[in-house]
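Quick illustration for those who missed Monday's session on complexes.
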Amino acid sequence: MKILVANIGSTSLKWRLFDFSNNAERLLHKGGFERVSDYPKAIEDCLAELKQANAIQSETELSAVGFKTVIAKDITGCVRFDERVLQAMADYNGLAPAHNPPYITGIKLFAQRMPGVPLIGLFETAFHQFAPEAVQRYAVPEAWRQIGVRRWGFHGASHKFMAERSAELLCRADVAERARQLYVNHGTTPISREPLRVISCHLGGSTSITGILNGVSIGTSMGMSPQSGLPQNNRVGDLDAEALPYAVKTLGITVEEAQRQLTREGGLKGLSGLSNDIRDIGEAALQGNPQAKLALETYVASARHWLGSYFLQLNGTDAIVFTAGIGENRADMRAAICANLENLGIKLDPVKNQGTRAVEAIISSADSQVKIFVIPTNEELVVAREAKRFLETK
Ligand code: ADP
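Prediction with adenosine-5'-diphosphate bound:
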């Protein structure tokens, strides 16, 4: 069974092709194009590359194309795309303006190009749907809740991968299995030993931190939209709701312009006044730029805020996991986030931390009660696994 996972940006198409034959999971091909202006051609070129690499002979060999879609109104989990699902995504375009519109366009183009191949999406909100109702709520009037004003949470594929992989690394096959079966039985697979507590830190261009108990999310830093939680690359993160009307009035700008600024000119970019990329900001901070230093400190303070929140809610933690662009590559950020937590049993090994970049590793010291891991994320594999299960069960 071959499943193609397509990652669609407004001007990019990236893909991974997995083969699940013979009970194995093999990555057959990965590739991508940036600065795409002609999407139908990009899909054509993707198929041509797959054929040229002998990964497929024809697109009819594809059992499905999977998509890591972000959010849809009243729909989550793993679903097959049809008009109803695409409309539900369009209904929430405003919540994920950088992601939903290009995905809808891209999925329609895939449907035209290969009408016989099932197109299946795993929504990024899915992993958080079983968190307690109390942490999914905002304290808004009922009418607001009914139109979807609540915490959804995102990065579900990545946090699910962390839930499974961290459990394996901690020799908890029972919890890994529970996490694997999450969308089948809603986290009810029994576990055979004491509870397993993990805090997953997905630190990238887009960042969120999730508390995970026995393979299931108990809450996450992102709320209703990906413009929340920690400061993002150029998106604002958490902001007092009063700030928006205040800025609109005081700066004399429209709501749309305020939104544009919060989603394009905010986050690390807004804080540093320099760049949305932590490599540039880190470089400038090293050269003594005070705004760059402050941007990094604000990011770290926010990460610790959320880490602390889940540490408390989980009654301690067995492991902290770092992943995504910053989490996998930036030893300095990991060190700053884990600094001075010895009293909580959290101790990084500075040498292991410094030596770890984009590989799976344990970076806590031997005497740290809490294990600290770097785990490269594999969101596409999570999507492909769920698409496979969808085909097999539906
Ligand atoms: P996205 O959320 O867009 O997938 P990534 O997970 O790639 O983003 O994370 C992007 C962030 O991670 C940027 O701030 C970038 O500086 C940082 N980053 C990515 N790769 C590296 C690297 N090899 N070395 C240092 N920092 C990196």
